[in-house]
Write a structure and sequence with these properties.
By secondary structure, the protein is mainly beta. 9% of the residues lie in helices and 37% in strands. It has helices spanning 375-379, 432-470, and strands spanning 15-18, 25-26, 40-42, 46-51, 57-63, 68-69, 77-80, 84-89, 96-101, 105-110, 125-128, 134-139, 146-151, 156-160, 165-170, 178-183, 190-194, 198-203, 208-214, 224-227, 233-238, 243-249, 259-265, 270-275, 280-285, 290-296, 303-310, 317-320, 332-339, 343-350, 366-367, 388-389. The strands form eight sheets. Strands 1, 2, 6, 28, 29 and 30 form a six-stranded mixed beta sheet that branches. It has a four-stranded antiparallel beta sheet with strand order 3-4-5-7, with no helix packed on it. Strands 8-9-10-11 form a four-stranded antiparallel beta sheet, with no helix packed on it. Strand 29 and strand 30 form a beta hairpin. The longest helix is centred in the last third of the chain and has 39 residues, at 432-470. The chain is globular and about 85 Å long. The protein starts with 14 loop residues before the first strand and ends with a helix.
């Protein structure tokens, strides 16, 4: 009688491989800030990396194709007055990125498809609402222009980037520093971890904690938590003896873990990167030189160790490519962008297959760049699953779509009735025609400025083409 010893899985033989030296991004001064974020954000068009910069905070944005040595004068995105702590690409617009900083602000930037000549210094919108440094930002997975930020003031704020307004403020929920925040698949719930040792599941629109678990890992060091596709919670943390540990929990029964596994003894906080299409979670520790990966299934022991990708150099940070940015013709199921002290090294995870045909089982339909909801719809209580696309013919990034910010006119809010004491020196006889004349003049000036901006942009494009042609 034959007995099956080895678990059957199409991901059992997944292996990682670094790209060749000429496909790395060299000469990048990666930030030395001590903060447990990934320092790198990637999408199918660009790789963005937080870098060292004198006097303020900055990050560099490179087109994926611009590999090799990066010019030391390459333009940066500079606007923050203190170090940048976190960056995140908008899932619905590949040219829009948000950054959070020690200067207490969140800024949202529009990145052009061409390489600009000068530093980008003007954000599309600046979001001010935190009183201490902001260390976490995360875009809503299905609603357009909804951005979450979490700061050291223990607040979680949800913004409508399209209007520059606060939608919701989650206060009095966290009693200490927030370690991380993650959305579930349709963006109806949040999971947060905090220095007070609690993991909370929050319904942001009802502004209430739906479930919480005290000390899922007994150690004092930071815990990370993410939602899985099935709605379970995957956590990484430390035991009382400083062993690194991972756990899988059912929020409906938070007392007992579905799985709890000790791993190794190391100081680095494990950053989990989860692929819902394959149910594989990749664990990258800051300061580690390896990436461990596990498959989450519904059969015991539920979290199955697959393999470890090892290298010699420790990682300073890590970027994780969305599924639509992968090369399906090479059976690539994940791509990491590993940050060293002075370079960024892409690492490709591949399932070995002999066939050159499209592998349906490896690439189910995956979330595309179209939002399923508008911000107002989501705020009113609607939920929607991500709009999926097929990767059968590969994914072609959409051209630059401008992020329009329409700020509400504060003058629309009527003043309260009652006597008003005006300190204005305006002439009370200021007539309506004169006011219209001033407004007309302002309109004309705006049009002139817009025309000049377009001209400058066209000239920059021509200059880029000229310099590219002479290189």
């Amino acid at each position: 009688m034959s007995r099956r010893v080895v678990r059957q899985s199409k991901f059992r033989h997944v292996f990682g491989q670094p790209v060749k030296a000429d496909q790395m991004y060299e000469d990048i001064r990666v930030s030395k800030v001590t903060w447990d974020s990934s320092f790198c954000a990637v999408n199918p068009k660009f790789v963005a990396i937080i870098v060292e910069s004198g006097g303020g905070g900055a990050f560099i944005v490179l087109p994926l194709s611009k590999t090799g040595r990066v010019d030391k004068n390459h333009p940066l995105v500079t606007g923050h007055t203190a170090p940048v702590l976190d960056i995140d690409w908008c899932p619905h617009n590949d040219n829009v990125i948000a950054s959070a900083s020690e200067d207490t602000t969140v800024m949202v930037w529009q990145i052009p498809d061409y390489v600009p000549v000068r530093n980008i210094t003007e954000p599309v919108v600046t979001l001010e609402g935190h009183s201490k440094r902001v260390g976490i930002i995360s875009w809503h997975p299905t609603a357009r222009n909804v951005l979450l930020s979490a700061g050291c003031d223990n607040l979680v704020i949800l913004w409508n980037v399209g209007t520059g307004e606060m939608l919701l403020v989650l206060e009095d929920m966290h009693t200490d520093l927030i370690y991380n925040v993650g959305w579930n698949r349709n963006g109806s719930l949040l999971v947060t971890t905090c220095k007070d040792k609690k993991v909370r599941i929050i319904d942001p629109r009802k502004q209430q904690v739906v479930a919480e678990r005290f000390a899922p890992h007994e150690g004092l060091r930071p815990v990370r938590a993410i939602f899985t596709r099935e709605g379970h919670i995957f956590t990484t943390g430390f035991t009382r003896m400083s062993q690194r540990e991972l756990g899988l929990w059912d929020p409906k029964n938070f007392e007992e873990p579905i799985a709890l596994q000790e791993m190794d003894t190391s100081n680095g906080v494990l950053l989990p990167f989860y692929d819902p299409d394959s149910s594989i979670v990749y664990l990258c520790g800051k300061g580690d030189s390896s990436i461990r990966y596990f498959e989450i299934t519904d059969e015991a022991p539920y979290v199955h160790y697959l393999n470890t990708y090892s290298s010699k150099e420790p990682q300073r940070g890590m970027g994780f490519m969305p599924k639509r940015g992968l090369d399906v013709s090479k059976c690539e199921i994940a791509r990491f962008f590993k940050l060293h002290e002075r370079k960024c090294e892409p690492i490709v995870m591949t399932v070995p297959r002999k066939s050159d045909l499209f592998q349906d089982d490896l690439y189910p339909d995956t979330p595309g760049p179209e939002p399923a909801l508008e911000a107002d719809e989501w705020l009113s209580g609607k939920d929607a699953e991500p709009i999926l696309i097929s990767l059968r013919d590969g994914y072609v990034p959409v051209k630059n779509r401008e992020l329009k910010v329409v700020k509400k006119n504060i003058l629309d809010n009527k003043p309260p009735p009652g006597p008003r004491h005006s300190h204005s020196t305006c002439n009370p006889d200021f007539s309506q025609p004169a006011l219209e004349e001033v407004l007309e003049e302002i309109r004309a000036l705006k049009e002139t400025v817009q025309a000049q901006e377009k001209r400058i942009s066209d000239l920059e494009n021509k200059l880029c083409q000229f310099t590219n042609g002479t290189d």
